[in-house]
Amino acid sequence: MTKIEKIVLSYSGGLDTSIILKWLQETYGCEVVTFTADLGQGEELKPARTKAEMSGVKDIRIVDLREEFVRDFVFPMLRANALYEGQYLLGSSIARPLIAKHLVGIAREVSADAVAHGATGKGNDQLRFELAVNALDPSIKVIAPWRQWNIRSRMQLLEYAEKHHIPVPSDKRGEAPFSIDANLLHTSTEGKILENPAEVAPDHVCQRTVDPVDAPDTPEIITIGFESGDPVSVNGKAMTPVALLTELNRLGSRHGVGRLDLVENRFIGMKSRGIYETPGGTILLAAHRGIESITLDRAAAHLKDEIMPRYAELIYNGFWFAPERDMLQALIDHSQAFVSGEVTLRLYKGSASVISRASPCSLYSADLVTFEESAITFDHHDAEGFIRLNGLRLRSLAARNGR
Ligand code: ARG
Hints:
elongated, Rossmann fold, alpha/beta, binds arginine, Argininosuccinate synthetase, chain A, domain 2, five-stranded parallel β-sheet
């Protein structure tokens, strides 16, 4: 084993990463720098500093990445209408490359030769972290304690904490907690009773959105403005990416929008069941599709829809910094030049439905589509020929098959 001199740890300040911090200090006998990213997870970040200080960390980095997260990761992904396996808005998947990028940045700045993370050996997150580090700086080593140490259970983890005087909050003592990951885009919950997909998720699992059953009986009408594929305003008020997503999260969670109970296929091979809450993201997806419906050409829109599952899978599997993701992103971004205008939605008991859309760049022509008399010359005979030619091979087939 080559000697490691300095490690940058992705550190939340929670029990697991506190134990990892101690383990790294003991195992490698070197300086550990902690990096805590503020991604809008809604947790106090001060305890992360205090705990790191108590563990003797000299260099403590707590960085607000919210704006970069929404502007450079969430919005580009939304331009693609990305959904993994048709349903998952990729809230955890999209945060990892950003964290990895900053881990690498700090590692270079402080001349660390390794970065460390607290993702386990069974999940997707280890892939997302490590593939990103590989792409950004292959000279940096990655330490994944969950794959290296001898701790094999929650009990052993708590024993280790006790032995090393790491305070274990009383609520963490008994049963293992849910595995929760939260940021401005979503909250995901996995583990415990949820591991049985036949079991209905208990009510208390969702903490970010109200149950649609308990949502207000009066619908709420909201308007979202778009410019070149990105949302820029809510109800006529211009907002920064963070302010906008925060506001849509507030509106969506009031109306129970964006809950998902999903069994998905992990990249590593197994199926897993999770509960997701993505209130603002769910509204934005519906709104973005709404504005695209009048501003995108048919073939452009269909091509986007064809590549979307591929693009979503790249993000899910951890290939954000891979050339094929860049290539697809260029295609997607190119398509968005005229995706501007306003979409009005109705939020009501768990749903976010588009009820109107308007754009100065609209391709929609009421005059062309109307059932009434039209000013634009549309020769109905053209449609007759169009059908006749499209039906040519079908008539040949039917004649042969003797239908
Ligand atoms: N299954 C989801 C994904 O792979 C969520 C993972 C969340 N991570 C966690 N530590 N709970 O994107």
